[in-house]
Amino acid sequence: MLDCIIIGSGPAGVSAGLYMVRAGLKILIISKSENALEKAEKIENYYGFENPITGKELIQNGIHQAKRLGIEILEKEVVAIKFSDDNCFEITAIKQNTQEKYKAKNIILATGVSRNKSNIKGLKEFEGRGISYCAVCDAAFYKDRDVAILGSGDYAMQEMKELLPIVHSVTLLTNGKEFTKKMDSKVQVNTKKIKQIHGNRRVEEIKFEDGTSLEIDGIFIAEGVASSVDFAKKIGAKVNGNYIVVNEKMETNVPNLYACGDCTGGILQIAKAVYEGMVAGLEIISKLKKS
Ligand SMILES: Cc1cc2nc3c(=O)[nH]c(=O)nc-3n(C[C@H](O)[C@H](O)[C@H](O)COP(=O)(O)OP(=O)(O)OC[C@H]3O[C@@H](n4cnc5c(N)ncnc54)[C@H](O)[C@@H]3O)c2cc1C
Q1: How much is the average pLDDT of 179-205?
Q2: Would you say the CB of residue 228 lies under 6 angstroms from ligand 1?
Q3: What digits encode the pLDDT tens for the residues 209-220?
Q4: Pairing mode, if any, of strands 77-83 and 27-31?
Q5: pTM, entire model
Q6: Cα separation of 84 and 180, whole Å?
Q7: For ligand 1, atom 33, which residue shows the shortest CA distance?
Q8: Are residues 163 and 238 in the same domain?
Q9: 169 exposure class (CB count in 10 Å sphere: 0-12, 13-18, 19+)
Q10: What number does the ligand 1 atom closest to the CA of 11 have?
């Protein structure tokens, strides 16, 4: 059994990992390889570099440093986190359609902040009234109803798996993206561009840019890659808008679930991410030493 799985190999996740591995803990980092910081051409406000460094170099240096100290980094997308029967966490990660599960006593969410999510008219307005961000949490409310999923990647497929045994039908909304995968007979794929989500007190229909519409009982949002906030919500951790609520020890309200870096909000900078990663790592070390 692993002491800790860290999701995200940016400054926060790697910083947490460095402390834990040097203390002899059994840890694993699971992360997609893309990092927003790679777009930074020049970084000159982080300690220790006489000359500016590119975001790409800084990220690569961190990963090489982690690997040199013996941290295993799996390049995969995490699509689900659940509690397992033995009071631990079970993580599902995917790479090239192959799904694997991993178990750990503690989890650190360090997936950064989610960017580029849709700003479709009506989406915010109907949150909690037909718009859901969590199939595990809300699927039961849509028993035998017609629902849609906004998204077309691995995360959307995972949400679909949760919904299919419960709902009457699922429409996958790609919002203009091409889609070629073969789907279950209960699934329709709609690639039209969405104009608006419409309803009176709740979501009732989706209007498309070509003038057509689709009547629907609910829409599950699963665009792109699941963020820390998506995971936090599913597992019962408190969030505040786009950020996870943590205390000064980087603990969420869910025992043994920590969050650090951009996903906890505040100043979205490398120095803060590295600091919070250290705090989460040290807290887990101290807790495990006491037990
Ligand atoms: C263009 C740009 C320029 C910047 N310039 C500066 C600067 O000059 N100075 C500065 O201090 N800060 C800068 N920042 C901010 C800085 O990048 C962030 O504050 C910092 O990277 C946060 O670190 P993090 O570890 O919390 O998250 P991130 O660095 O965002 O790392 C998160 C990691 O988690 C992975 N991930 C996400 N979801 C999943 C999932 N479901 N499964 C598996 N892996 C997942 C991502 O692929 C990524 O590798 C800049 C940001 C951008 C976008």
Answers
A1: 93
A2: no
A3: 999 999 999 999
A4: unpaired
A5: 0.88
A6: 34
A7: 8
A8: no
A9: middle
A10: 25
